[in-house]
Amino acid sequence: MSIDNLKNALPAYAKDVKLNLGSLVTTSSLTEQQLWGTLLATAIATRSPKVIAEVSADAADYLSAEAFTAAKAAASIMAMNNVYYRTTHLIGDETYATMPAKLRMTIIGNPGVEKLDFELWSLAVSAIGGCGKCLESHEQVVRNAGLSREQVQEAVRIAAVVNAVATTIEAESVSVGG
């Protein structure tokens, strides 16, 4: 199992991250598709080649081809949207919020999987991307569609742990410190 490969690659100082990673796949209240799509989308959002490869290998066993592609699409579209909407918010000039974005985003309307799942993956990617506007928007959609706050929290927890795994593995790959 490739999640196991990631756990084994974590050094002793990242024991908490290792334990958290192990519990993500064993204690989830999300559907299998929601869980593995969130893992895959957030792995892609970290930009860590090793994390992407290892999570992708496992996710392929749990996701249909359509769901696998949709999780990748969520990471892709949110990479763009997180930068754009975070910037228009942080500039502080309300005029930017009234201007058309002029960014093509049709995948959000027709992602090829249940809209709820795609929105959840977009929310988790936005946690890594740090876009408050995107987090608020996607959280509202998934909550209105019936997900609990605990399920939203779980998706954000997945994003946090996957991001920590990627940070640690990438740091170790360049031999940071002594």
Shape: globular
Q: What fraction of residues sit in β-strands? A: under 5%
Question: How do the SSEs run, as a string of H and E?
Answer: HHHHHHHHHH
The CATH homologous superfamily is named: AhpD-like
Mean pLDDT across the residues is 94
What is the CATH class designation?
Answer: Mainly Alpha
End-to-end gap: 30 Å
The major beta sheet can be summarized as: none
Proportion of helical residues: over 70%
Radius of gyration: 16 Å
List the helices and strands and how they pair.
Blueprint: H1 2-9, H2 15-24, H3 32-46, H4 49-62, H5 65-91, H6 95-98, H7 106-109, H8 115-129, H9 132-144, H10 149-173
Helix pairs in contact: 1-2, 1-4, 2-10, 3-4, 3-5, 3-8, 3-10, 5-8, 8-9, 8-10
Function: Antioxidant protein with alkyl hydroperoxidase activity. Required for the reduction of the AhpC active site cysteine residues and for the regeneration of the AhpC enzyme activity.
Disulfide bonds: 131-134
EC number: 1.11.1.28
Describe the structure.
With 178 residues, the protein is mostly helical. The protein has a single domain (2-173), classed as AhpD-like, CATH 1.20.1290.10. The chain is built from ten helices and no strands. It is globular, with a radius of gyration of 16 Å. The model has no long low-confidence stretch (mean pLDDT 94).
